[in-house]
Design a protein that fits this description.
The complex is a heterodimer of chains A (109) and B (188).
Chain A: E1 3-5, E2 12-14, E3 19-23, H1 35-43, E4 51-57, E5 65-71, E6 77-82, H2 90-99
Antiparallel strand pairs in A: 1-2, 3-4, 4-5, 5-6
Chain B: E1 12-14, E2 18-21, E3 26-31, H1 37-47, E4 57-60, E5 63-69, E6 72-77, H2 82-92, E7 99-102, E8 107-113, H3 117-122, E9 139-144, E10 147-153, E11 159-164, H4 168-178
Antiparallel strand pairs in B: 1-2, 2-8, 3-6, 3-7, 4-5, 5-6, 8-11, 9-10, 10-11
Helix pairs in contact in B: 1-2
Classes of the chains: A alpha+beta (109), B alpha+beta (188).
The structure holds zinc ion.
The site of zinc ion has 8 residues of chain A, from loops.
Chain lengths: 109, 188
């Protein structure tokens, strides 16, 4: 079972208190954007074997959205962090690099 | 106006712990900046309670304040005085980006009391309810079986639990099953 610490209320929440909310750090392309950008925003997702960044919601808890960095193969969690950011914090990226040198995910590495 | 009644009209169940629907209770959702001096003064004036720390409840002479999220408190008070409490909050929060809403009739409150109270909840919520981990004044939003709920531990070692009124019967039923004599685990 996956356990993630909610960065807003500090609870070590197990999976049943949480709701998966898809990929993290998506940039929204709305009305007025090009068809290509809009299609990419709507449909194109990472599906990595390994390091992944996701959005979660503490739905049976404080209700807040947050981000999590984890591995899809080992289920290890590198850390969780605020949703009010455009990129993963450096300490989490460092932690991933220590374990998986040379990793990359979208524009992050 | 018709008489207000609580969801289960103070229904009670005697198992290895006692489960009681506690009747009408004033409940107010207060959203705003919890670090603001104005909000702090408003909560003090309305309830006598201080702003609770993360996942804690505080008690004043006219009510309680519970930490719901980084920008939300649940204010508990007498059902009869809920409109006055909201009036005080709203007046004190003039000019502040905040909102106080009466949710009393949208919720139900249960009390779980007795030696086995911790176990009754521990069977239903993914929360560490051991004496060392969950202490008087601690507050937790979680789930009870399949529905959202929040609960806290009083000084007298009884729990109080808040859920949506629409699921009051479900919550009462699962609490009864959990408190069934013979279902003691004897671990907590
Ligand atoms: Zn949370």
């Amino acid at each position: 079972m996956l356990t993630l610490q909610c960065p807003y209320c500090g609870v070590d929440a197990e999976e049943t208190e949480l709701h998966a909310e898809g990929e993290a750090h998506l940039k929204r392309f709305g009305p007025g954007s090009s068809d290509d950008d809009f299609e990419t925003y709507l449909f194109m997702r990472e599906n990595p074997k390994g390091v992944h960044f996701e959005r979660w919601r503490h739905s049976n808890g404080c209700g807040k959205f947050f981000h999590a960095a984890r591995s899809t193969t080992t289920l290890e969690v590198f850390g969780t962090y605020s949703a009010q950011t455009y990129e993963p914090p450096q300490d989490i990226k460092d932690k991933i690099t220590a374990k998986y040198p040379g990793w990359s995910w979208r524009e992050f590495a | 106006m018709s008489n207000a009644v609580s969801a289960l009209n103070s229904a009670s169940f005697e198992g290895f712990a006692t489960v009681t629907e506690t009747g009408l209770r004033g409940m107010i959702t207060l959203r705003g900046d919890l670090s603001s001096a104005k909000l702090k003064a408003a909560v003090k004036a309305a309830t006598g309670a201080a702003i609770p720390d993360v996942r804690r409840v505080t008690t004043g002479k006219d009510g309680m304040a519970a930490w719901m999220s980084p920008d939300e408190l649940l204010i508990l008070c007498d059902y009869a005085s809920v409109n006055d409490t909201i009036a005080t909050l709203t007046a004190k929060l003039t000019g502040e980006h905040a909102l106080a809403v009466n949710v009393s009739d949208a919720r139900a409150v249960f009390r779980i009391a007795g030696d086995g109270a911790r176990e009754v909840l521990a069977k239903l919520a993914p929360v560490d309810l051991s004496a060392g981990a969950f202490q008087a004044g601690d507050f937790r939003r979680s789930r009870i079986a399949q529905v959202a709920a929040a609960f806290w531990l009083n000084d007298d070692n009884s729990f109080e639990l808040v859920c949506f009124r629409s699921v009051a019967q479900y919550v009462f039923d699962v609490l009864k099953v959990s408190a069934q004599p013979g279902g003691e685990v004897g671990f907590l």
